[in-house]
Amino acid sequence: MVKILLWYQKIKKQLKIHTKLLLSKRARNSEIVRLTHGETKFLSKEYDSPVSTIIYNNKVLITIWNQETPLAISIESKEISKSYKDNFEVMWKIAKK
Questions:
Q1: What is the DSSP string of 14-49?
Q2: Which helix H or strand E contains 55, and what residues bound it?
């Protein structure tokens, strides 16, 4: 999982794609923070999850990072994307720099 996320962040940084990234406090000193092009905030342990979500325009990619085989669900929907964006903004306000 970590290698894929690091690769993804490197590509976004090279392409200058601005990111708003929410991570666990445990990841504060990780390489992914250094590689992120954009803003990073941190959530307490109670919000830790093996699920990552990427929201882009009207698309949502939900990835469940389990030990054996990651599972990804891609959704293209204006309504669902807006709902996830709204939820993200609530979490962003809770998170700390």
A1: HTT--EEEEEEGGGTTSHHHHH-SEEEEEE-GGG--
A2: strand 51-56
